[in-house]
Specification:
This protein has 2 domains: about 10-175 and about 215-245, NAD(P)-binding Rossmann-like Domain (Rossmann fold), CATH 3.40.50; about 180-215 and about 250-285 and about 300-320, Alpha-Beta Complex (UDP-galactose 4-epimerase, domain 1), CATH 3.90.25. It is built from 12 helices and 16 strands. It has helices at about 15-30, 45-50, 60-70, 85-90, 90-110, 145-165, 190-200, 220-230, 250-260, 275-280, 290-295, 305-320; strands at about 10, 35-40, 55, 75-80, 115-120, 120, 135, 170, 170-175, 175, 205, 215-220, 245, 250, 265-270, 285. The strands form 5 sheets. Strands 3-2-1-4-5-8 form a 6-stranded parallel β-sheet, sandwiched between helices. The chain has a 3-stranded parallel β-sheet with strand order 6-9-13. Strand 2 (about 35-40), helix 2 and strand 3 form a beta-alpha-beta unit.
Length: about 325
């Protein structure tokens, strides 16, 4: 029997994905029914004024439990995490936030008999030896602490499904590209920054080389995939916390060429840093038949339609002095 979604708690709601997801959820479920939370970063004016917002610490059970009891939460979307780039600079912080925070969420979800929990994963779960197009089932040998925490998080959440009957779900996000919020320390950040710099300065210095090819997704499809999985009937799911979701895949040169169709004077140069090795350890693309068959996943954007929309949105923002 499908449990109704009534009150949603979003952790990490000030982040790149969380901020847009929260606003989208509020439009669908009602502003008062989606409680946004963050740790330290001040939310945007729109996020704070559109519905409830609170500062919490996902590593502190009492902090999260207070929100659950105050709002009678039945669904948690756990977005709070330290990403790959930041995680490699501070691995212990990455482990602490990503793993201990996830355990707190899972335990409280069992205790309060949540309707469902969504805990996103990442393409960072893979490493050397993964086929260029990563299958749903393959060895998970990440090379970053972020990737290690995401593998452990998938396994832990699946354990809670089997051990406690918890409805926990997750999907492996590719690189996410958005015109609304800047990214927060991930290896795929170049695919966002390149658009901002193309509009502002007509030039971008990229921290990975031009042959670097990774799976990517436009934010509207990211939000759609998250909500589609959240709303899918539990009985239809054979997998739970590790769904591959594909959309598009391209190397940096192809991305730059797509931008040049609209900004011919755009130029790019390459100065690879430590993130090059991280990117090289990830697959070029993903195979997502399980997501398509079990909950009807289907993306809406390709590279050129995304580029056109991104540049149009960012050009308007630049004219208004917002970027």
């Amino acid at each position: 029997m499908k449990k109704e979604i009534k009150k949603i708690l979003v952790t990490g709601s000030v982040g790149q994905i969380g901020s847009e997801l929260t606003l989208t959820l509020r439009k669908k479920y009602g502003a008062e029914n989606v409680i946004a939370t963050g740790r330290k970063t001040e939310p945007s004016k729109e996020l704070r004024e559109s519905g409830p917002f609170h500062f919490i610490n996902v590593n502190d059970p009492a902090s999260v439990e207070e929100m659950i009891k105050k709002y009678n939460i039945d669904t948690i979307i756990h977005m709070a995490a330290i990403l790959s780039g930041v995680g490699e600079k501070n691995p212990m912080l990455c482990w602490d936030v990503n793993m201990n925070g996830t355990i707190v969420i899972l335990n409280l979800a069992v205790q309060y008999e949540m309707a469902r929990v969504i805990i996103p994963s990442s393409i960072a779960v893979w490493g050397p030896g993964t086929p260029a197009k990563a299958p749903q089932e393959t060895a998970l040998k990440p090379t970053t602490m972020y990737g290690v925490t995401k593998v452990a998080g998938e396994l832990l959440a699946d354990y809670y499904v089997k051990k406690f009957g918890l409805d926990s779900r997750g999907l492996r996000y590719p690189g996410i590209i958005s015109s609304e919020t800047m990214p927060g320390g991930g290896t795929t950040d170049y695919a966002v920054a390149i658009y901002y710099e193309a509009v502002k300065n007509k030039h971008y210095t990229c921290f990975v080389n031009e042959q670097t090819k990774l799976p990517m997704m436009y934010m509207p499809d990211c939000l759609k995939s998250t909500m589609d999985l959240m709303e899918a009937p539990f009985e239809n799911l054979k997998h739970h916390n590790d769904f591959n979701v594909g959309s598009m895949s391209f190397d940096v040169k192809t991305l730059a060429d797509s931008i040049k169709k609209y900004i011919p004077e755009f130029t790019i140069n390459y100065e690879p840093d430590f993130r090059q090795a991280i990117a090289d350890s990830w697959p070029d693309d993903v195979e997502d038949t399980a997501a398509r068959e079990e909950w009807g996943w289907k993306p809406s954007y390709d590279l050129d339609s995304m580029t056109k929309d991104m540049l149009a949105n960012l050009t308007e923002k630049h004219k208004k002095g917002l970027i």
